[in-house]
Amino acid sequence: MHQSRQTIDASNLNQNLLSALQQEVDFGAQALKQGNPEIAVTFFQSALAKMSVEMPFYDHLVHNLLLSYKAVVERLLEKEDHDSADRFVEAALSLEIRGQMADDSVFRQHFADAYQSLGLACFAKGRFGASLNCCRKAISIFQGPSYYINLTNSLVAAGSRPVLSDYTTEITPEQLGRHIFIACVPKSASTFLKNVLASLTGFKDAFMVYAAGQTEHEIYLPTLRHTAHLDTVTQQHCRASDANVHLMQAFGIQPVVLVRNIFDSVMSLLDFYNVQGAFYNTYFRADFESLDEETKIDLIIDNVIPWYFQFVASWSLAEKQKRLPVYWLSYEDLVGDKPAAVQGVLNFYGLGAHQTSIAAKIAEAEGEGRKIRFNKGVSGRGIVGLTDKQKERIRGFSRYHPTTDFGRIGI
User: Fold this and answer.
1) Residue 255 pLDDT > 50, yes or no?
2) What DSSP letter does each residue of 293-305 carry, written as one string?
3) Burial 205-214 (b: 16+ CB within 10 A, else e)
4) Is the entire prediction scored with pTM above 0.70?
5) Phi and psi for 230 in degrees, rounded to 5?
6) How many Cβ atoms sit within 10 Å of the Cβ of residue 108?
7) d(CA 128, CA 155)
8) What is the mean pLDDT of residues 155-161?
9) Which CATH superfamily does the domain covering 15-160 fall into?
10) Domain spans of the chain?
């Protein structure tokens, strides 16, 4: 346990007060060291009541009081005295760095670490609301990247929604930009749709990930913070993970979920991987080119297609639980009537555009050719190109998600 240590500056203090403070601080530190945190709390509270914020030791004493509270809470949780533990957690949460250490980043991190540790202790004993409050307190003091792991866990366990201040205090909800977010399966004409929407709205094309390639397209908080005040269009291959959903809730993002017939997806992936996509976007780069066509298809079915089922199941559950408004769009509807599909997305976001403008932007995007990566863009290829055994193996993945309707992807 880290204790704050600092000699009290006696130059401007009454000697009697100094003596009393030093004695109480020493007694408190000794009690904490000996495993008597309740006694330490008494001495540190008494000393703190005699001090002013301007005194150089003030923040260090507050830190020691926080450590004492933490030790008391841990002891009470072990005894399952939850009511008393909650009272001490509330007392701990009321503490603030108000003195000369307020601008010291190292001290602030140590202070925040104590709240993070307290939150973990509460989480381990099932006190999820208290854990969440401790996580939020830690983040408000110092935005340590590791704190967001415990924030996500606490939000899920407590069944709570995040707020914007959980992730940033540099922007208010009123300052947030408008965000069009296309959560999509690969090879679903998502690049085409994004380009049309960006051109129509003038919104910034923003890819909110740490890296692409073989990396899962999880929303990356630093990038999201950087673009939060802008109007953006984003296209990412991401499932409705708790972390993604929390960030969307906090930053006011509502997703368009773009899917495609699962059998056609296999054939489109095969085309893509055969022209270097396997090298850039998969872990099959070493051997893919050497495999025969049937083995390549089997590889895609066994290793990639389960993700598609998880994608649909995750967004379906997020919608069912009313965690986010979701607008479903299929590749087939998009390529079948592009103007209507684009208009539907715009309507979902409360945006508008004249049909003439939509038609013009679609034509412009179609003219980009290679950039939009439409491949063959033919529906029904999977039924012809896959064997009955392969199609049955694909259908079999649905049994792992019995509450999800996979009609959207042709199952």
Assistant:
1) yes
2) HHHHHHHHHHHTH
3) ebbbbeeeee
4) yes
5) -95, 160
6) 18
7) 8
8) 97
9) Tetratricopeptide repeat domain (1.25.40.10)
10) 15-160, 173-409
- Tell me the pLDDT of the chain averaged across its residues: 93
Mind listing the pLDDT tens digit for each residue in 72-90? 999 999 999 999 999 999 9
Angle between helix 338-348 and 355-366 (nearest 10): 120
**Rounded Cα gap, residues 207 and 204, in angstroms:** 10
| Residue labelled with tokens 């995040």 | 162
Amino acid making up residue 383: I
CA 190/CA 402 separation, integer angstroms: 28
Residue 324, Cβ neighbours under 10 Å: how many? 19
Residue carrying structure tokens 């929303």: 219
C-alpha angle 329/330/334, rounded to 5°?
Answer: 90
- Give the pLDDT of residue 229: 97
CATH superfamily label, 173-409: P-loop containing nucleotide triphosphate hydrolases (3.40.50.300)
The single residue listed with the structure tokens 């129509």 is 200
- What tokens were used for 169? 């205090």
Residue with tokens 């205090």, as numbered in its chain? 169
The encoded tokens of residue 217 equal 């397209």
Q: Is residue 357 within a helix (H) or strand (E), and if so which, with residue range?
A: helix 355-366
